[in-house]
Amino acid sequence: MDSVQDVLVTLARRHAFADLEALTDDPVVAAVCEFGQRLLSLDAEDFAVEAREVPPALRRRARACTMPQTPKEQPRGALESLRPAYGLLLEVISVRWHRRELSPMVAALHIASEYLPLLAFETVLGHAGDPARWPAGLTAPGSRFGVIGDRECDHTKPEQSAANRTLRVAGEPAEGWRAYFDRQHSQVAGALATCVADCRNPCTAMDWVEPERRDDLAARARVALAFADTPLVRLRHAAPVGHGFGVPSPEEVQEAWQRSRVVLAKSEVGQAASAEDGFPLPGLPSLFSSIAAAPVPTSTLLDDIAAHLVTLLRSG
Question: What is the domain partition of the chain in residue ranges?
Fold first, then answer.
């Protein structure tokens, strides 16, 4: 019969952080479990500051995946680069798949789809869509970016509102900054992709991008938009009575991803989704890397937290 310690170690290795936290009477183990669970749940705003019992190296890696909570906070985390955050998303997707927790897995895919255009824009912006560092050319004379009510602009009304807000949110107090990221930043991601890849009536908003780089950016942004409309991501909206009631089966997820790969493979950038890279959804890390035009490896942060927990449990 397994000992209590063996059971707790097994829970740690399975990333069952919430279950382990509920069973342990060790405050250090509990704090690390809370840290891991927030990451696994993608509920990671200020955890890296609070988790004093977690080794600094793990906290630094987690902070790289989070949005700053004030306009001037340093370091800039996921506004500096989204690649660490997408590495974590891939790890969360993998863990959820192996635990057969498919509803939160599909939710993670939905989050990935919303910000994917910013992963493409990182190569030309030099950051990951930081509202404090938008290029001046985005609002050059003749630009419709952020002009509310302009009927010549292809942006939806929510996108126009979000684009308008992103140009001034860096001057707002922390509460307004956080509210913007909660509700509007993903709309800005889509708006930028539309500007460079899908606008039927282009203005000067994208003239700041060097002409020799614009076609490449447009191709990657177009695939980012296409991913958001794939059968895989649409599983998030498949429930007949709102989100959370239509949990797909593993077979449905696999079938939706296969159909998505066929759609995405019609473009050179999207062909990366056809790669057999060993991921539970084969080709997904390769697709993200292709859109980013840079390697986006799957994180090992959750695995490393689990390993640290095992060490704590065995030394206790």
Answer: 4-65+300-315, 98-292
